[in-house]
C-alpha cells in the first residue's frame, strides 16, 4: 500500500506495501500512503478520522492483464485534492495533488501486474509510461511496476525494465530506487529484486530511498523525503536580472557550478600510456640521428646519409632489445594463476589468422596485402560511382517526379 505524509518540518515521505493496521495512526501528521494492491485489510486501515482515501477499483482484464485496483490514503491534515489520472491501459493508477510551500506536487500510485507480458502488453506499457510522465507539474509515480533492470540494483532485467530504461533515457524523468531489494520471493530458486520504485521529474531536494522491514509483507516498504524548505530557499535566492551584465554574470556562475559538479560527479582515472617508454640511451641516439639528417639535407653530403642510415639500424636494434626486456619483466612479475596470467597465456596460445584471399571485380584472386588493398579499393570505387550522370534524362525525370510528389 502506498502512502504519503507531510511532517511539521515540511518533509514528504512515501511508504509502499503497508499491511499493518496501525500504519496510519503511527505516522506523524500530514502523511500519505499509496497502495498499488487494494485488499480488504488495506481498506480497513484507510478508515478512521485521521485518514482520507482515494481509490480506484477495477477488477477487469485489459490486454490479458488482470487489474485489481490501487489506492492512496492521505492524512486529513494534509491539503490535497484528487486529480484525474492519465487514461492508462495496463498500468493501474490513481493520483492526488498536494499543496506545498514550494508549489503543487502530484503523487500517483501505480501497479503493473507483470504477468502474461506479450508484445502487445509491452507496447501499451510504453504508452502508459509516456502518459504518466507527461505531467508538467513535479510528480512522484510510486508503486510496484514489476520492471527489473540492473541500473536500479537488480541481478537481471526483464522486458518491462528494458522498456522503462529506454523511456527514462529519452524523457525528462529518473528512477529512484533503494540500495537493497524491495521484494523477497518465497521460492528459493528466485532472487530478490528491486521492483518497488519511484519515477520523478523533480530531483532537486530528494534524500536517498530507504527500505523498512517493519511491515508484514513479502515487499519491503520504501521511504524517501523531499526537502521543501530547501526548494523555497533556492527560489528566494534568485538573482534579479536587470541588465546584460547581470545576465552574463549569472551565466558564468551557472557554468562554473555545472563544471564543478561534473568534476566531482565524473570519476577520474589515470591514463596509462600504451606506447613504449624509451630509455635515455635511445633518446640520445634519436637526437644524434636527427642532427645527421639535418646536416645531410643542408649539405647533400652522402657520408651524412650513410651515418644516418647506420644510426637508424642501431636505434631499431636498441628498441627491439628494450621491447624484449620489458616483455620478459612483465612475464616475471605476473602472479601465478591470476587473471592477467591466464589472459596472457590465452593470447600466446591463440593463433593469429590472416585475411583469406579475396576475389576482385575482375574475377582475379588477390593473395598479397597489396593485391587485397587494390581489390577493396576497386570495389569501393565502383560502389560509390554513379551509373548515370546528373545530366542524364532518366535522372532528371526521377528528380522531377520526386519534387512533384
From TrEMBL:
Residues 105-222 form the Endonuclease/exonuclease/phosphatase domain. InterPro entries: Endo/exonu/phosph_ase_sf (IPR036691), Endo/exonuclease/phosphatase (IPR005135). It comes from the Eukaryota. Pfam families: Exo_endo_phos_2. Keywords: Nucleotidyltransferase, RNA-directed DNA polymerase, Transferase. GO terms for molecular function: RNA-directed DNA polymerase activity. PANTHER family: DOMAIN-CONTAINING PROTEIN, PUTATIVE-RELATED (PTHR33273), ENDONUCLEASE_EXONUCLEASE_PHOSPHATASE DOMAIN-CONTAINING PROTEIN (PTHR33273:SF4). This is RNA-directed DNA polymerase from mobile element jockey. It comes from Pseudolycoriella hygida.
Amino acid at each position: 500500500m502506498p502512502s504519503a505524509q507531510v511532517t511539521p518540518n515540511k518533509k514528504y515521505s512515501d511508504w509502499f506495501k503497508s499491511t499493518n493496521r496501525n500504519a496510519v495512526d503511527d505516522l506523524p501528521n500530514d502523511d500519505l500512503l499509496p497502495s498499488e494492491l487494494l485488499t480488504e485489510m488495506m481498506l480497513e486501515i484507510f478508515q478512521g478520522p485521521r485518514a482520507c482515501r482515494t481509490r480506484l477499483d477495477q477488477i477487469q482484464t485489459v490486454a490479458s492483464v488482470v487489474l485489481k485496483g490501487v489506492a492512496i490514503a492521505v492524512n486529513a491534515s494534509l491539503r490535497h485534492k484528487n486529480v484525474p489520472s492519465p487514461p492508462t491501459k495496463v498500468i493501474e493508477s490513481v493520483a492526488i495533488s498536494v499543496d506545498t510551500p514550494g508549489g503543487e506536487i502530484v503523487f500517483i500510485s501505480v501497479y503493473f501486474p507483470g504477468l502474461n507480458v506479450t508484445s502487445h502488453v509491452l507496447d501499451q506499457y510504453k504508452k502508459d509510461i509516456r502518459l504518466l510522465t507527461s505531467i508538467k507539474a513535479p510528480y512522484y509515480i510510486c508503486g510496484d511496476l514489476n520492471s527489473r533492470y540492473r541500473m536500479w540494483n537488480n541481478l537481471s532485467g526483464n522486458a518491462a525494465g528494458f522498456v522503462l530504461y529506454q523511456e527514462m533515457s529519452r524523457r525528462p524523468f529518473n528512477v529512484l530506487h533503494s540500495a537493497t531489494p524491495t521484494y523477497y520471493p518465497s521460492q528459493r530458486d528466485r532472487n530478490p529484486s528491486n521492483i518497488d520504485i519511484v519515477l520523478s521529474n523533480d530531483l532537486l531536494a530528494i534524500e536517498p530511498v530507504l527500505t523498512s522491514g517493519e511491515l508484514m509483507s513479502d515487499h519491503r516498504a520504501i521511504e524517501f523525503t523531499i526537502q521543501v524548505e530547501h526548494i523555497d530557499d533556492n527560489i528566494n535566492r534568485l538573482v534579479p536580472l536587470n541588465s546584460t551584465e547581470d545576465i552574463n554574470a549569472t551565466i558564468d556562475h551557472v557554468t562554473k557550478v555545472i563544471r564543478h559538479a561534473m568534476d566531482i560527479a565524473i570519476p577520474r582515472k589515470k591514463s596509462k600510456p600504451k606506447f613504449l617508454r624509451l630509455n635515455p640511451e635511445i633518446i640520445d641516439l634519436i637526437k644524434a640521428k636527427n642532427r645527421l639528417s639535418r646536416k645531410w639535407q643542408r649539405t647533400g653530403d652522402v657520408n651524412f646519409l650513410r651515418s644516418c642510415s647506420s644510426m637508424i639500424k642501431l636505434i631499431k636494434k636498441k628498441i627491439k632489445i628494450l621491447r624484449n626486456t620489458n616483455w620478459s619483466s612483465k612475464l616475471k612479475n605476473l602472479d601465478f594463476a591470476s587473471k592477467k596470467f591466464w589472459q596472457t597465456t590465452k593470447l600466446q596460445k591463440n593463433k593469429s589468422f590472416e585475411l583469406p584471399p579475396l576475389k576482385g571485380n575482375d574475377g582475379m584472386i588477390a593473395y598479397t596485402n597489396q593485391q587485397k588493398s587494390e581489390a577493396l579499393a576497386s570495389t569501393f570505387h565502383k560502389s560509390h560511382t554513379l551509373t548515370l550522370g546528373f545530366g542524364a534524362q532518366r535522372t532528371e525525370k526521377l528528380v522531377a517526379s520526386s519534387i512533384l510528389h
